[in-house]
Amino acid sequence: MAGREKQSPKEDQKQQKQKEESAEKKKQSMRHEEESEEMLIRISGYDIPGSKKLLAGLTRIKGVGWAISNAACLKLGFSRDKKIAELSKDEIKKIEEFLKNPSVHDYMKNRQKDEETGETHHFVGTDLEMRKDFDIRKMKKIRSYKGIRHTSGQPVRGQRTRSHFRKKGQLVAVRKKTEAAPAAKPKPAGGKK
Hey, what domains does the chain have and what are their CATH numbers? Predict the structure, then answer.
């Protein structure tokens, strides 16, 4: 054993113990990181990773963009850099209440001057999806230009269709080959007659 001196058994035991302790610490820190990453917090029907910051995490909710998320943080007095996992149940309830009826300017809301009521609302999650579906059904029913485009699966907002949108809504189907026609009868062997 060149270059290595013999150690006493006590020193060997100390080194072995230190290695085991450091390995245990690494395992604990890895578990802690995995738990914080795996933790999902449910806000307004959406699971948001606990490792996300509040400002970015709220944008995972359908109907909540950066502007509404920022407004929620400011109006409720939360830090934008606070992790979602650090929120208490009361804070989550406050956020959900704010998202149902945000106290922001009308131009920030996603349903301005509703056709039926004339009021301005802000819808989030499944409510927003349902309203959108009802609007599309209504356009299809009254046969407006947009409704006809929705029905035929074409782009609605004036995009060109010459080189794109050809595969929208189409399924790739595998067709079976039809039976091959029977082969022609072979000519008799021999020359001309």
Answer: 13-106 (1.10.8.50), 125-152 (no CATH)
